[in-house]
Write a structure and sequence with these properties.
The complex is a heterodimer of chains A (448) and B (521). Chain A has 448 residues and is an alpha+beta fold. In chain A, 36% of the residues lie in helices and 28% in strands. In chain A, helix 2 packs across helix 3, helix 5 packs antiparallel against helix 6 and helix 5 packs antiparallel against helix 8. Chain B has 521 residues and is mostly helical. Chain B is built from 28 helices and three strands. Chain B has a two-stranded antiparallel sheet. In chain B, helix 13 packs antiparallel against helix 14 and helix 26 runs parallel beside helix 28. Chain B is elongated and about 130 Å long. The chains are: A alpha+beta (448), B mainly alpha (521).
């Protein structure tokens, strides 16, 4: 797979690393540059002479520098040189330090495969059932307390919240963590900065509290819910489904998946990337999540067969998490990644907002707790009215939207339609990517 | 709207507003399933949840009329070229940006649409004198965008070719833009432009009058004499000074004749009388006896001087006679002194430089030489002024003389300045360097620059570093890339001052190389 600068920068753990990598992306900075069919390598002078190497199969890098970031700026610099001009690295015999590393990686991969094939240890089912029952009780008590707290907020009035410390939300989130409801804890924690933060904060807050209220009500009647919706409610509270379970039992779907967008979110401790994929044949959407803790890499997409970047097409079988309206998925089997070619596969999507909102209503009927819904549109015109961004479809229907640089979008379009990857949330679209001149460009989600 | 009522109740609180949640009609039916025993705050909580989902499912878009799309005539550069142009824009180096704009234009392309907002954000003042270039690369999309945002409206005016198209630019906007518009009109239709300016002159403020009068330099001729003479009696000294400069181009005008009579009545070049033994011997042996410049100034300036634009009241710290003398000399072309007194320019400068009133005489000559772009005299006067003193007036006159030089001579002066260890009686600034340097002269300059770089650790001069950055853009690319900038990070005292500009220099050269690669001509 040929690399471009954007794809390399997508591997950066943060914006500072990306900027530092760019500064190093000059052949003069590295010495002993070389490449083979398996790897790229070079040496970069920092406080010492660092050995930098990249495994071409999955773009995993290694550097002898002391940085805790992964990949470090030296690996990014080397990859950016390759992206700029692959011929800048002469073909050469693989040096010993690269060979040793490649062998070590190969050994680790084999060990992992052996471990996966080994029979699972016996599970103490009684103890497990006891643990589950105890957790259910804790969760139920935690949700009762949360509902009481939210009802108290509404009793005294949301207007008072803008004068209160965000700590009240964080304390409540901590109680939910103790009650073993981490997903709900995250949602409550994210509300901390909302009061007083914008014109519509109260409406947004009320809607989210209401949705959580309904979720708590649904959690009390789990047994009466259809199987898919039961999984959605449990997941929204914080029960997890194991990867193995999803891979073995989840709904499977093979397709050519267009990586339509990438967003990065963060709660201070953990950062996660959200990728929306769109199946070219099935028309289905799939959400892939990648997590990173303490500045570590999100991974290089080894399970995918390449870095997961907007504008690439992954030939893969996905396994969906159980849901009444399955969205989140895992890669079950990947047959390769290539750049999406607009000439072969036109930008997919819904032709009008009318069709999208019909689909949304159907989805909500199946899974009312959906808070975000992805959508691809091949032809929308961005325009600004009184400083507010709107997207206008081919029928003249306009919907408010948010984008990091709205004027840039308007300039790119010049009054003509562009393709868009969007996410519907809080009664507006979030612009995730746009497609102009047959190239998909991410608009949000870059690390800050 | 029920959703609004629901929010109102939530903001006030059910303790004060304890009625049933005011749900939308479609939701009341669903909410009826809630247990009657539920308290109002819980009912509100669940009602809000239902309302959020209901609103999301039933969202109805509004309708909007779109403006007509922009129809660009030029193609856009490639994505890779756009990336380079974006980095150039982000670097904030004006010289490099203008070089990039020119390259885009020469390649017959338009500025990338995605970078238009950042370009327009730079504002009107960034593009003075380059509006035509800007208009070409903005293509149709630039104005299409500019019309939609008040802060960018500046990009809509003053780019037209005809007077009618540029009408707004003549009367509105920043003064430098207006001067540029008047100059363009003046070049096309000198008489009409002057007549229009004359008619509107009185209504303008003093600062604008002085600036706009400069536009008459373009194609100045005898027909302009009456108006320019009238300006000698303007209430603003700045306007009078511009008028006096313009009259240097009109030596046949009445005012210029009066100026010549006036100065030669006060200044006379006389043969030396007597002399000592040595000078008499030298004359006998064929040597030239230096003539003596006699300056006789009245204790009180005649009133008619003022009517011809001479300011009588000197600024603080300047003697009245010195002040008058500089103006008297500046009011006539410097070559007139050479002709009247049969002196070569170098002799004229030498006579003035050795006189008691040297500062006033040289400043006067400098002003007129700069106004007439007299290169030979400018080259002589720059060091002569540097030798007498370095006060603000001298430095600004040196800068004006330097500005009047053609690019090749400017480059030669810069080369000399480098070779003399960043000195030579003139303060060279980064802006002094021509924007583009030809290859042949550039090689000599680059060599001098390289020697200066090599000597930098001994000199440690901040002006030089700024100069170096200007050279990164101005030098032909191969010469700029060939300059070797040593890594001095190991020298503590130089690390912070030098390494930053060094990195920036290398970055500029790298961007130029990438631009040349991505936008071939």
């Amino acid at each position: 797979m040929s690399l471009d600068q954007q794809q390399v920068l997508a591997l950066a753990p943060d914006a500072a690393s990306a900027a530092a990598g760019k500064k190093l992306a000059r052949p003069g900075v590295f010495e002993g540059l070389g490449q083979s069919a398996q790897a790229f390598w070079g040496q970069c002078q920092g406080s010492a002479l660092y050995q930098v190497q990249v495994d071409r199969s999955d773009l995993t890098g290694k550097c002898s520098c002391p940085s805790r970031k992964f990949p470090c700026k030296h690996v990014l610099g080397l990859l950016l040189i390759v992206a700029e001009n692959a011929d800048a690295l002469p073909s050469a015999e693989t040096p010993d330090f690269v060979l040793a590393w490649l062998e070590k990686r190969q050994g680790a991969a084999e060990k992992k495969a052996q471990k996966a094939e080994a029979p699972a240890a016996e599970v103490d089912l009684v103890a497990q059932a006891k643990r589950v029952a105890l957790r259910q009780q804790r969760v139920a008590e935690g949700l009762d307390a949360l509902e009481l707290w939210m009802a108290d907020l509404l009793r005294s009035g949301l207007a008072l919240l803008s004068q209160q410390s965000p700590k009240i939300w964080r304390d409540q989130a901590a109680r939910l963590v103790d009650a073993q409801a981490p997903a709900l804890a995250g949602r409550i924690g994210r509300l901390a900065e909302l009061p007083g933060s914008g014109r519509d904060w109260a409406g947004t807050l009320l809607a989210e509290l209401g949705r959580i209220g309904l979720l708590i009500a649904a959690s009390r009647r789990l047994d009466e819910l259809p199987e898919g919706l039961r999984a959605d409610v449990r997941h929204a509270i914080g029960w997890t489904t194991s990867t193995d379970e999803v891979l073995s039992e989840g709904e499977r779907l093979s397709d050519q998946w267009l990586v339509a967008s990438r967003q990065v979110e963060d709660d201070g401790r953990v950062r996660w990337r959200r990728f929306w994929l769109h199946g070219l044949a099935s028309g289905r959407s799939a959400l892939i999540l990648q997590f990173s803790v303490a500045g570590q890499s999100f991974g290089t997409g080894k399970e995918v067969g390449g870095a997961l970047l907007p504008g690439t097409l992954v030939d893969a079988e996905l396994a969906f998490f159980p849901s009444a309206f399955p969205q989140r998925a895992l890669f079950r089997e990947s047959r390769g990644v290539r750049l999406w070619d607009a000439a072969a596969d036109p930008f997919p999507g819904t032709s009008s907002f009318r069709a999208f909102f019909d689909d949304l209503a159907t989805a909500l009927a199946a899974q009312p707790f959906i808070s975000r819904m992805p959508a691809l549109f091949p032809a929308l015109v961005p325009t600004l009215v009184d400083g507010r961004l709107f997207l206008v479809d081919t029928e003249g229907a306009a919907v408010p939207a948010h984008a990091p640089e709205p004027w840039r979008l308007v300039a790119l379009a010049g009054g003509k339609p562009l393709g868009f990857a969007l996410e519907w949330q809080d009664l507006a679209f979030q612009c995730l990517s746009c497609c102009s001149d047959s190239l998909l460009e991410p608009l949000s989600g870059e690390e800050s | 709207m029920k959703a609004h009522a629901l929010l109102e109740q939530a903001l006030i609180g059910t303790a004060k507003e304890g009625a049933e949640p005011p749900l939308a009609p479609g939701l009341r039916e669903i909410a009826a399933a809630l247990p009657a025993s539920l308290d109002s705050s819980r009912k509100l909580l669940l009602g809000a949840g239902l309302d959020a989902i209901y609103s999301m499912a039933g969202y109805a878009p509004q309708r909007l009329e779109l403006p007509s799309p922009a129809e660009d005539l030029r193609p856009a550069p490639s994505r890779r070229a756009e990336t380079v142009l974006g980095e150039i824009l982000a670097l904030g180096q004006k010289g490099l940006l203008f070089a990039a704009l020119e390259r885009v234009d020469q390649a017959g392309m338009r500025w990338p649409a995605g970078l238009l907002p950042a370009l327009l954000d730079l504002g009107r003042k960034s593009f003075v004198g380059r509006r035509e270039l800007l208009a070409r690369v903005l293509d149709a999309r630039g104005p299409w965008l500019a019309v939609q945002k008040a802060e960018w409206n500046w990009a809509l005016t003053g780019v037209g070719e005809s007077a009618a198209e540029g009408e707004d630019a003549l009367w509105t906007g920043a003064i430098d833009e207006r001067v540029a518009a008047w100059t363009r009109w003046r070049e096309r239709e000198p008489a009409a432009a002057r007549a229009s300016l004359e008619a509107a002159f009185e209504k303008e403020k003093a600062e604008a009058r002085a600036a706009l009068l400069v536009a008459l330099r373009a194609g100045i001729g005898a027909d302009d004499g009456v108006f320019v003479e009238k300006c000698l009696r303007d209430r603003s000294q700045a306007v009078r000074e511009v008028a006096m400069e313009l009259l240097l181009h009109l030596p046949e005008s009445d005012a210029s004749r009066r100026a010549a009579e006036r100065v030669f009545a006060q200044l006379r070049l006389e043969e030396p009388s007597g002399g000592g033994l040595i000078s008499n011997l030298a004359a006998k042996l064929g040597g030239k006896r230096a003539s003596v410049l006699s300056v006789e100034l009245p204790d009180e300036a005649p009133k008619e001087w003022q009517e011809d634009g001479i300011a009588l009241k000197p600024p603080a710290g300047v003697g009245a006679k010195a002040f008058w003398l500089a103006q008297l000399v500046a009011a006539v072309p410097p070559r007139l002194f050479c002709r009247r007194w049969s002196l070569e320019p170098a002799e004229l400068v030498a006579v003035c430089a050795s006189h008691t009133w040297s500062e006033s005489l040289l400043l006067g000559l400098a002003r007129s030489a700069a106004a007439l772009a007299d290169v030979e005299l400018a080259i002589l006067l720059i060091p002569a002024l540097g030798n007498i003193c370095n006060n603000i007036a001298v430095v600004s006159h040196q800068a004006a003389l330097f500005g009047s030089l053609p690019p090749a001579e400017k480059l030669r002066q810069c080369t000399l300045w480098l070779e003399k260890g960043f000195s030579g009686g003139i303060e060279i600034r980064a802006e002094s360097l021509p924007a583009q340097i030809e290859s042949e002269a550039g090689r000599l300059f680059r060599d001098a620059l390289q020697r200066a770089v090599n000597a930098y650790p001994q000199k440690n001069d901040g002006t030089f570093l700024r100069f170096l950055l200007a050279a990164a853009t101005a030098l032909p690319l191969d010469l700029a890339a060939g300059l070797e900038l040593p890594d001095l990070s190991a020298i503590d005292r130089l690390r912070y001052a030098y390494q930053g500009p060094r990195e920036r220099y290398l970055e500029i050269v790298r961007l130029r190389q990438r631009l040349a690669q991505e936008l071939p001509l």
